[in-house]
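Model it.
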Amino acid sequence: MAPSSPSARTAGHKPALAAFSALAAGWVFVLVTLGAFTTSIGAGMAFPDWPLSNGSLNPAGWLTNVAMFAEHSHRLSAGLMTLLTVALAAWIWRSESRRWLRRLSLFAVGLVVAQAVVGGLRVRLDPVQVAAVDTSLGRLFAMLHACLAQAFACTLIAIAAGCSRAWVTRPSGVGCAVRRAGTACCALVFLQLGIAAVMRHSFAGLAIPSFPWSRPDGGLLPAAWDFRVGIAFAHRAMACVVAAAVAVFAAAIWRDRASTLAMRCGAAGLVGLLALQILLGAQIIRTSRDPAATTAHVLVGALTLAAAFWLAWLAHRDQVEAPSGT
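Modeled.
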């Protein structure tokens, strides 16, 4: 690492820091995958205690029991994620002169700590029932846990992008149409993932058992309504809105002459992720929530937000690096 004196801090590209920040951002998706698999097989309460698992860091039988393996692997990967985030923040504070990047690294530490606490509350408060919403307090925290994971992933992507060579050496120059479309797209995808979190933890994934229509006879609206049907229908309706937002954002990138090749390829990848996500959603219905399809659906949803956020963040590069933000 760079010397700790303030005078040694610079805003230039640091290959080792860039690689480490990319590793930390990538590890988020390992964590998301393990968390999604844990939820998909109903193993979120495989251990009734926290932060230990059955009172141990190495609980008996966790390598042979699928539910225990899923949950304990998720906890271990979360612990590693915390260490990576703290190390990244320390490195940035020792070597970086950009104030916005140093502050963002502290925000990432705050998020990972909050995520750990919320995950612990999800376990410890699961026995507490909330009659008003017909669920447990622990499951409400599980919904929040899922949303914080997406915000945390975006934060690490922002840090990794800010440490990259392209960010440091190449201005963005794209127009405000790209920036506006990117901001709107990210907000809508994040809202969709929030709806999905509520749906998953309300056991509403199969509340509408046909696809793409809401009734086997081809009806657009469900025949009967309750909370679970409503949240499932909202998820499908928002998917249409998100599809339109992604198309508009991708088109704005492709039309803007200042868009880099990386941004144009990223826009194509974003459209591809959206198409794959729709196919996985259909597969979940057809297989009655097969764990592999459900886990992949959650992961691709997170990757869709990550791609949209990365593109939007690149589009805002010049605003972020303005003199007031350094």
